[in-house]
Amino acid sequence: MLDRNFGRRSWARAITAIGFACFCYSASAAAAPDSVDVILVQTVAPDPSATDAEESPDPVVALEKQCEAGNADECTRLAYRHHEGDGVPEDDARATPLFARACHLGDMTGCTMAGYAYSEGRGVERSHERAAAYYAFACHGEEATACSNLGLSYIGGDGVAKDPRRAAKLFRQACDLGSISGCANLGASYSLGKGVAPNQRRAARLFERACKADDQHACYNLGVLHRDGLGMPRNYKRALALFEQSCGVDDASACGNLAMLVNDGRGIRRDRQRALQLFDKACGLGEAESCFTLGRAYQTGKGIERDNARAIELLERALALDPETESAADARKALALARGEAA
To answer: What sections of the chain are H helices per DSSP?
Structure first.
């Protein structure tokens, strides 16, 4: 969340809480997808480029025959074909049962993908219980992504009872098995003190590791620690660079945090116009507090030409995006005032 007073409030207040990172599945690969300002990662689909399922040269018909014959790897390859629309129409309703079959035949990537499908409701009715069961089975088979995803299930109580300690152990296991999201999530656990004793230095090391592996959520989290001097000396310039990097790949929280630094001139020359542009970008990406901040700017005419209609639009968007945001009460008051002027 963003500082609702456009930089006048204590800088120690969080813009976006450090959270558990999430990779959102893309057709070609898993890619990084919300106190201390760190974010956790959501469920991740395994990267097909890291499995034998990548770019299978076999015709679909041949894959179907081999899958029917009980070849787990070929079932996974076939499932990816349907999931990605590779040589066949994209069809998760067809892909998910194939991932499940691959799982039952012993392919752990198939198990993780089946869990992901149930978690997201892709081709099947959403079921967090089934998702957690598939993740648990795959994690037992040392599929790193599944361990990280199962940890998130325990964080949110999705299909299992909430258990931050169990989650932290799973994130550690995932990280040890090579899951970058697992390392990022373990870092968030240490930063937030969820399931482990708070340790910002360990968090920083884990975020650094994941950031170097191009996990932009980890880069953002590392920026938060640099900005607030958590586990390291405060370094606004380093925070700026990390927020800029993550904002460049459309991370809404990073754009909002970057806007705050630019607006307040921390680590950089103060630039109100650029700050407003960044708030606008963050708002467009779905960051409610940025919408509120920008709406207030249009309402008051500070740094931008006053535009009451635009202010109303932005304040309404802020409340629609997150009616429980920290600034919700102020947003409602500002919106009532703006509507009164428009009447």
So the answer is: 60-68, 72-84, 92-104, 108-120, 128-140, 144-156, 164-176, 180-192, 200-212, 216-228, 236-247, 252-264, 272-284, 288-300, 308-321, 328-342
